[in-house]
Design a protein that fits this description.
Blueprint: H1 2-18, H2 21-36, H3 46-71, E1 76-78, E2 81-83, H4 86-93, H5 97-100, H6 113-121, H7 126-142, H8 154-167, H9 181-197, H10 202-229, H11 236-247, H12 249-253, H13 259-286, H14 291-301, E3 309-311, H15 319-324, E4 329-330, E5 342-346, H16 350-356, E6 361-368, H17 376-379, E7 389-395
Parallel strand pairs: 3-4, 3-5
Antiparallel strand pairs: 1-2, 5-7, 6-7
């Protein structure tokens, strides 16, 4: 019983973080399991009411804050759209509104978008997962949609329904699928257990393991090339070090032990090694192209008056607020400018602003690229300038 209530506390925490999807995922996971096992009474447990009360109590402080901030002051602007009710926006429009069309976001609406991104984000296990999901669904059909007492469909069914819900959204980003990764990991782990510990899937064992080695090698080659070519600020010695660490994987693969478990060890070695090199070299170099980072560094270093700094004509994300340790306000009309203002704006806006403020002085010019949307053109140093915009920090009165 204690675990039951802890689960509802966790759901409340998830809803504070990402909204109603935190409640829907458990529903998506357990509902098909109960149906396939014909456990109808599970849908009518009194504990659900107690759990919902717990969730409501824990969400009450945040809900009061939303009500006071938006419902009592309707018309506030979020992403250019006036909000009448903060409660409705957070608990409905921001999540379900993406499916019903009420949300103002309309991008990447294909049902296959998240799967396409999962092909790389779930590496090196994506092939195992797809096979595991296929066999799980196949078994359900073979058993005429009936689960035995020793079987579960929480993970597979939960992933499928969660994916369909996320995939039906008219606005998707690659990381949305991460909410279903724990379910995908369990499905994959179960398949690996059957592959390595039982006689199931014998004909798949050798081809899959050979393919897995190919994936490891391909990943290492890709990272070595990225470190060696993409950014001049990354030392060539870093790429050489990555190559030497890569060589350390082969003694693991050819060690005198059970060949199947060597694949798992090589996977851990690869995942840890690649992420280590990416985090100590690639990502620090990449973030130098993110406007919020470079702007915050300049503002902090030169101790500019943050209350006088405003953003005009650009979306800088939240990195400027985070690294600048200040919530920077926007100005949407040049008529709002004051002589004391310092403006962060795209470089294309400079000439237009100078017509009204000829004494304007550019303090800093930096690159502006959405680092979460990497392209091959950006990764190519010879083509990068075509992908990267520029912004300026300018003092309007030139003093």
């Amino acid at each position: 019983m204690e675990i039951f209530f802890v689960a509802f506390i966790a759901v409340a925490g998830g809803m504070m973080t990402k909204g109603p999807i935190a409640l829907m995922v458990p529903v998506f996971a357990f509902a098909p399991h109960f149906i396939l096992r014909r456990e109808w009474k599970q849908f009518f447990r009194w504990e659900y009411i107690a759990g919902l009360i717990i969730i409501g109590i824990l969400l009450l402080p945040m809900s009061i804050g939303l009500y006071q901030q938006y419902d009592l002051h309707p018309g506030k602007i979020i992403h250019g759209v006036p909000i009448k009710s903060g409660l409705r926006f957070y608990y409905w429009t921001q999540s379900f509104g993406r499916i019903t069309g009420e949300s103002e976001w309309h991008e990447n609406g294909s049902i296959f978008f998240l799967l396409q991104n999962m092909l790389w984000s779930f590496l090196p296990w994506i092939i195992y997962f797809l096979l595991a999901l296929f066999f799980s669904i196949k078994k359900i059909f073979q058993q005429k949609f009936f689960l035995q007492s020793s079987q579960e469909f929480i993970t597979s069914g939960g992933f499928i329904l969660t994916y369909l819900a996320l995939g039906s959204s008219q606005a998707q980003l690659p990381h949305y699928i991460f909410v279903a990764f724990p379910l995908a990991a369990i499905v994959t782990g179960n398949f690996l257990y059957q592959l390595l510990e039982t006689n199931h899937f014998l004909k798949f064992k050798k081809p899959l393991l050979m393919f897995q080695v190919f994936v490891y090698v391909l990943l290492w080659i890709s990272i070595i090339m990225i470190l060696a070519v993409v950014f001049e600020s990354v030392s060539i010695y870093t790429a050489i070090a990555c190559f030497l660490v890569c060589l350390g994987m082969f003694p693991v693969l050819f060690a005198d032990k059970d060949s199947y478990y060597k694949i798992l060890e090589a996977s851990f070695y690869t995942i840890i090694g690649l992420n280590l090199f990416l985090n100590i070299s690639f990502y620090p170099a990449l973030l130098k192209y993110q406007a919020g980072n470079t702007a915050a560094d300049y503002i902090n270093e030169h101790q500019l008056p943050k209350n006088n700094i405003f953003i005009y004509g650009m979306f800088e994300g939240r990195t400027l607020d985070f690294y600048g340790n200040h919530i920077f306000q926007h100005k949407n009309d040049k008529k709002e400018f004051l002589a004391s203002d310092i403006i962060m704006t795209p470089i294309d806006s400079v000439n237009s602003i100078k017509k009204d403020w000829p004494q304007m002085k550019v303090l800093f010019t930096g690159p502006d690229f959405h680092v979460t949307r990497l392209t091959f053109q950006f990764l190519n140093p010879l083509e990068r300038d075509k992908e990267v915009g520029k912004y300026v920090i300018a003092d309007l009165d030139g003093k």
